[in-house]
Amino acid sequence: MTETTSRFQRLLPGLLFAAGWALFLGILFAPLWSGGVIVNPMSDGKDGYVTRHFAANVIAQWGEVPRWNPYIFGGMPFLGAMHGDQVYPISVALRAIFPPALGIGLGMVLHAWLGAVGLLAFLRKQSLSWSAAIVGATAYGASGPLLSLFYPGHDGKIYVLGLTPWALLAIGEACRTRRPQWFALWGLLVGLMLLSPHFQMTYYSSLLMLAFILFTLFTETEKSKRLLVLAGFAGVSVLALATAAAQLMPFAEYLPFSPRSASGSSSTGWEYGTSWAMPALELIGTLWGGFNGWLGTYWGTNAFKLHSDYLGLLAGLLALTALIRTPAGPERKRVWFWLGCVIFGTLWVLGGQTPFYRIPYHLFPMISKTRAPSMMWGHVALCVGVLVALGLQQWQAMAADVRERWAKRVAIGLGVAAVILAAASEGLITSLAPAMRADAAFAAVADARVGLLLGVASAVAFALVAWKAPKYLAAAAVALLLADLGTQIRRFIVIDERGADVFAADETVQAVLKDAAGATQPWRVLPLGRVYMDDYLMEHRVRSVLGYHGNELHTYDETLGGKNQWTNLSNPQSWRLLAVRYLLLDETPTQLPPGFTVVGEGLRTWLGERATVLRVPEPAAWAVVAPLSFKVASEQQTVATVMNPQFDPARIVLLDTAAAFGSTEQPQRLPDPILPAPTIAVEERQPGVYALKIDGLSQDGFLVVSENYLPGWTATVDGAAAPVGRANGTFISVPLRAGAKEVVLTLESAADKRGLMTSYAGAGGLALLALLGLVLRRREGSA
């Protein structure tokens, strides 16, 4: 038998699992392969599709990642504000090969596959048997915290959870062998996580990885080599950060201008940081499927829930077995480590419900700027997967009489508990639910009973196999986990078979584009109500005052009255500043405001709702020139002034004190607007580059453009460089001389360019390190 054949036979169980898991996911996501798209009305995926399609078009037309997204929230930097996996190499490659819908979906499915196969490989490297490793990988790969993320479209979370097991594998091998290629692999995986670019999930993975590094160092690494290994990880961390610089540098450049860095912003503080934690009662639902309801029947205390935290009762049984039955020794230490990770993660996801979260909130860097600590449950699921594998080994190692005794206890105990809980489930659930969720709680009872039946049946069936046919224990565990978890997870796999046609122009888009034909300047729509509170309009190059993002400019939020409040949007003065041309309403008002024109009513939206389009009277221009400017020190005063109905942006511009132009002396009286008003035609050469053709500017003035200001904006006036300042709260202003003909505004981000080059350098460094390791290994083999 050749060495290659022998190696193949050793790896055969793993190869079969990898193929089988690909088949399982292939069947689960079958409509995707025939042109479907992973999207539903509640999914972030619908917005993710639009931004990725936009990026693909920009790259195809101009050969670069978009500099600027002008279509939502007054505009924002594309990479700095983060629009998903725009520089994540795997996603970029898939979307370059496949149509957007398939490329996006395939990337998510691929990482779900990587998560399961990666945990299998990690467990094998931890010296677990093939059967135990396969069961542990199944428990993680089919778990709710991983696969249910497809429903809300949280691809970044899936990417990180898919890569984390491989990073743990690399850590273990680096600590044991100290070979450079393992350090390089770990650095590459961390860099990819950061490029995903879900920084919060990567942070959580980093906590787990750090804990595992320390555990492995003190349990498996020679004492004399520990500092060397730590130095290796420290050095490679620098290369990992460099590899991720294409996303990190633009993000760091933009962070001071985002809501999460602004003092007093609604996106900071304890209440914000602990929002979207897992309510303690929902821990029951991690082992009792459906206890807290699914999707529309969710009755917990969060506003809604679009994913599942269900791990499976059988997974819980196996993990508990590892804790109780593992004898003293190295295996016992391993159990305690992973149990500690589960406890740590569980306390973390509870957020402010226990005093524990005060520690990371106040002591861990950047944690105070995050929210939704419940995200860490995906990492808890991974740790439980390891305990499941360790638990299965204990079942297999039991003496026949002990295994029979344990099996009987499990079957009888769970059977009795199931009868009692099934009978009491209605009263239990409805009594625990908040009064406002009473209807949802009542509707959840049926699903809870089904979930209880599935969970108990899988655990009892496993116990019976352990008793009667123990040699089939691993196969039974895999089948039962898939039956239970797969049944529960199906509701979270929603694929629209219409594919890209989902995003075709609906009746509203057709109406506004037809009505606005011939407009010489950009304009915006303002959704008021339920309709179009997403990024769909961006697909058709329609600018919206709002959108779906969360990382818009802080100055924009404050100008509109505060993030997620936007109290000034009810003030028509804000419409003037934002160049609002149309209002999008759920229905036609019973009494039409004076001057408004109905462009269309009862129009079917892309999500099947109905909308009414009103054109505002005398829509304001996107670009205007005022004769006077004045620097205002107080942001609050600026916002209050520009929102005053008597404020006319054609008469005066209120500048930030950092502007390189403008008067500091308060005017005694306001001048009249420039008459005749100059005409301004706007050409968008590419996102982030505007050319404004001006005709008839009879006196000096100050151009104000209804687009968010950032320091990266540069301007030329008739070919000569000109200063750019922040005006009227959040907009762009440029001083003009009489007779000016052309203004070109360009967003330049040095961080975008430096980041890309640094990423190439970091990846190159990791490649050289891996190559060094392979060369050294080959020399050792030939010595």
Automatic annotation (TrEMBL):
Record's keyword annotation contains Membrane: yes
Residues that span the membrane, as ranges: 12-33, 101-123, 130-152, 203-220, 227-249, 310-328, 335-356, 376-398, 410-429, 441-465, 472-489, 757-776
Top-level lineage group: Bacteria
UniProt-listed InterPro entries: Uncharacterised_YfhO (IPR018580)
Keywords assigned: Membrane, Transmembrane, Transmembrane helix
Claim: Membrane is one of the keywords in the record: yes
Name this polypeptide is given: YfhO family protein
Higher taxonomy: Bacteria, Pseudomonadati, Gemmatimonadota, Gemmatimonadia, Gemmatimonadales
